[in-house]
């Protein structure tokens, strides 16, 4: 089974809109329709970003709601041990943990809205980068 990493921006979009491709990807991950790769730093990043007041306000979610979803992801995702660090690689240092999870977990694809920053680095490691809508179109 191919493995995938969801960038934090995809989870933010999933929380902010229940109609978009990002929400569908989150639902698919929770339903184990694909193998989701997770690492400890990536989970901390998810939590830190999703519980920012502006995201909670925009989504109508509570910190408990975020915790419940992240607990669900932790239960279904494949834990990746970060044996190798590739920092700094990307323009935004907060994105390096996404790339490190993908590289160490041998991900097929990183799903993100930030293709511009991820593409050059991910290509060096043989990992694809695509937006949530593109992922869904190829999946079905």
Topology diagram in text:
Elements: E1 3-6, H1 8-16, H2 21-30, E2 35-38, H3 40-50, H4 53-59, H5 63-76, E3 78-79, H6 96-104, E4 109-111, H7 115-124, E5 128-130, H8 132-139
Helix pairs in contact: 1-2, 1-3, 3-5
Summarize the structure.
56% of the residues lie in helices and 11% in strands.
Account of the 3D structure:
With 140 residues, the chain is of the alpha/beta class. Helices cover 56% and strands 11% of the residues. β4, α7 and β5 (128-130) form a beta-alpha-beta unit. α1 packs across α2 (21-30) and α3 (40-50) packs antiparallel against α5. The longest helix is centred in the middle third of the chain and has 14 residues, at 63-76.
The succession of helices and strands, N to C, reads EHHEHHHEHEHEH
The total of beta strands comes to 5
Average per-residue pLDDT, rounded, comes to: 92
> Helicity level, as a percent range?
55-70%
Structural class call reads alpha/beta
Give the radius of gyration.
14 Å
Name the strands of the widest sheet in spatial order: 3-2-1-4-5
Q: Give the uncertain stretches in residue-range form.
A: none
Distance between the termini: 16 Å
Quickly count the helices: 8
Shape: globular
Reported for the largest beta sheet, the result is: 5 strands, parallel
- What percent of residues are in strands? 5-15%
């Amino acid at each position: 089974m191919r493995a995938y990493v969801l960038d934090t921006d995809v989870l933010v979009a999933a929380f902010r809109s229940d109609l978009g491709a990002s929400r569908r990807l989150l639902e698919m991950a929770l339903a184990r329709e694909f193998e989701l790769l997770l690492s400890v730093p990536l989970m901390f990043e998810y939590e830190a970003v999703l519980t920012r007041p502006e995201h909670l306000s925009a989504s109508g979610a509570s910190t408990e709601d975020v915790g419940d979803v992240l607990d669900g992801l932790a239960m279904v995702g494949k834990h990746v041990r970060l044996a190798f660090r590739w920092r700094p690689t990307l323009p935004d240092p907060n994105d390096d943990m996404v790339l490190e999870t993908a590289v160490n977990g041998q991900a097929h694809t990183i799903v993100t809205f930030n293709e511009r920053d991820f593409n050059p680095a991910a290509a060096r490691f043989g990992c694809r980068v695509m937006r949530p809508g593109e992922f869904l179109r190829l999946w079905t």
